Amino acid sequence: MSQQTVDGFDEAFDWQRQKPADQLIRRFVDQFCGANDHVANLRDRMVTETGTRLLDWVDHVGIPASETVDGKRVDEVLRQTGFRGATDRGSGDWFVHDGGLFPPICLLNDRMSRMAIRVDSVADFLATNQCDAEIIGRDGAQFRRALVWSNDNTEFFVCQRHGWLRWEPCDIDVDQIMAAKQVLAMFADRQRADFSAESDLIKQAVAAIGVDWACDRFFVAERNYWQSRNHAARVQKERQDRLGLGWGNHDHHTYRNSRENFAALIGCLELLGFHCRERFYAGGQAGWGAQVLEQPATGIVIFADVDLSPEELAGDFAHDGLAAQDHVGTVGLWCELHGEAFLQAGMHHLECQFDFDAARQQLQSLGINTMAPFTDFDYLRQAFTEGEMWKVESSRIDAAMAKGFITADQAERFRREGVVGSHLEILERNEGFKGFNQTGVSEIIRKTDPRHLGQ
Description:
The protein is α+β, with helices and mostly antiparallel strands. It folds into 2 domains: 17-161, 2,3-Dihydroxybiphenyl 1,2-Dioxygenase, domain 1, CATH 3.10.180; 230-447, 2,3-Dihydroxybiphenyl 1,2-Dioxygenase, domain 1, CATH 3.10.180.10. The protein is 37% helix and 23% strand. The chain has 16 helices and 19 strands. Helix 5 (174-188) packs antiparallel against helix 6 (195-209) and helix 6 (195-209) packs across helix 7. The chain is globular. The two termini are 40 Å apart.
């Protein structure tokens, strides 16, 4: 476990803004769009029709190795801006950035520049955009790609990845593809009853198709379940599907968890290949914290929320476990009323990367309002859509009142009006900033507590 600082940050994950690397990536993307009218048009349509930015969909950029940047060799500039060589991306000279959120760069041994975006389905993108292109990779495979638009200087690809990092297609047979389909169906139909059963299910899936593909399939099912319970999500997904994109712009998935089941949740996520990243704490007055996790092959990030005291932050609460308390904060009450997010309730929110202003304005025109931003920096902007109200089982309301977590008046209001269940979160990242706002989020979480609504 990495060393912990007093304010709750793991020093190894004290994310910083990476302005030089950000400027370099934007320069490459702008140059590519300037050389390919089809991609420039797609960039404009992404903003106006989905409220998203091409930059946030980029899977990787390929640059001629002979390229220079302001008179310097491109590989030299990449290293100077924080990129390092990588050997897990396939053939070619690949560079990745460990300190920020940037697409990999591949140096190519020809004069062509290459860009690829990552979508949920290559076939859907081609059909929606009326493109006639050959798809490399079997239908249902872990990786597929297609060359969509090219000219004398550029090649533009779309690809889909399901726990596959390399650019070369994977060697997948029909039996493996069928097994992956069965795993997805198994996750979609899971009973969501208890962590022990879910752990066994995950182990079965990993044994069938491997940890990375199983992780990808699990979160396809999770997003579908969350989307079925959130109107804003369905509206935005339809907008993105009209361009054949899917949810490829997801930033992180957020689970709300009870204290007593928190270690079990982390255990299930680690079975899916997640590694613990930084620990998040909203401050002594907030009463909650989170463990951030990331799965390196899929790029999926988890924000696991839990009621937490300041003194518990110093320990390894993700693995040591947390005892139940005689009171609950916002996160604990949500679990009391709706159930565990990993089980019956589903995710509290999915946060996706957008053009912040465009997305909020476009959704508002469709009748979907957003709450006041809880982060509004140049490098990070965040806001929830207004909460989706869920009906709560009377037995859960009765139990919460019996434990003293809510008053009789609150119980009556919850029965009558329901309780906020989930959100879509609008996020914009700049300068490669990979972290989160440790301060502004506390007040917005309080505003999602049904006991405080209207205050």
